[in-house]
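Students often ask why we bother encoding 3D structure as a string. The short answer is that it lets us treat folding as translation between two languages. Here is a chain of 88 residues written in the first language.
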Amino acid sequence: MKKIITLSLVILLTGCVGANISSLSRESGHEGSNLMMRCVDMSTSSERAMNANLKKYDGWKMVYASEYTTSNKSATAAVMCFEKPYTK
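And here it is in the second language, the structure alphabet:
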């Protein structure tokens, strides 16, 4: 019984690893509210999928990026926000 408790404690402690979170925010550079903004969730596990997501926003300005990872994850989760002036 003591071995099970010790093993459970070790598993619990190794599973709780501190997260590394970073973010970047830029000023819009545009006055007023005539902007479209889109945010997208991404993972760095697949370069092909990430590039396909980013290609949709060619010509847009990146105004926010946030990444989250831990030492026991193989990929980084990210959110990026893009904006561009709204045109009819």
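Translate back mentally: The mean pLDDT is 76. Keep this in mind for the problem set.
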